[in-house]
Please model this.
Amino acid sequence: MLRLLKVIMLSMLFSLTACQFMEPRPEQLSVVPQLGESYYTQVTLMYENDVYSTTNYRRGTLLEVNTAVELLEIEPKMIKVKILQSNRELLIKTESLIENIAQYTSDDAYQAFAKLFAQQEVDLSRFNQQERDNIKKGTVAKGMSKAAVKIAIGYPSIVRTPSLDSNKWTYWRSPANSFVVHFENDQVIRIQPKIHGFYEGISSGREYLLTASPYYA
Model:
């Protein structure tokens, strides 16, 4: 019995030690947001009626990356910030009575905050000029890297993109309107809209502006 107890205790100790050496994924890091502190957006956000859903629907008003905000309130299901430049409040929802947002993101407000905001600006100098131009406009184009796409149009929904290692990232403009960004060797090779269940092909070399009215440059 004593020997068995020693084996169990050694197993537990080994497990705890192993966990300490496991490197956590960035989105799993523990973040303690501070009310009243200033932060910068880490991706572009698109919102309607002063509300942004973490489903990340690509429609509405564009909020650029590196926009300064003040954290006003945070609860498990919502975040409220003030956009410092316009002095406008923005409500960020991670749950809604009419939509199961969690099925698209699996994030609560604290996890969403860690993805969307940080106290440092995003260093855009690591991207080429084309990528920087598209990041500023909230667009995606052929040749962009995964890192640039994530900043330009945010995180894809986990419903169709359970891992960012995938070479197909699916985004949504509405529940019936999605589009797929295809990658090869860490570069965009094609953008394929899916509207009302049917794919519409577009030139893989064109930009795709993800607003209420799609625009192809």
Summary: Residues 124-216 form a domain with the Beta-lactamase Inhibitory Protein; Chain:B, domain 1 fold (CATH 3.30.1450).
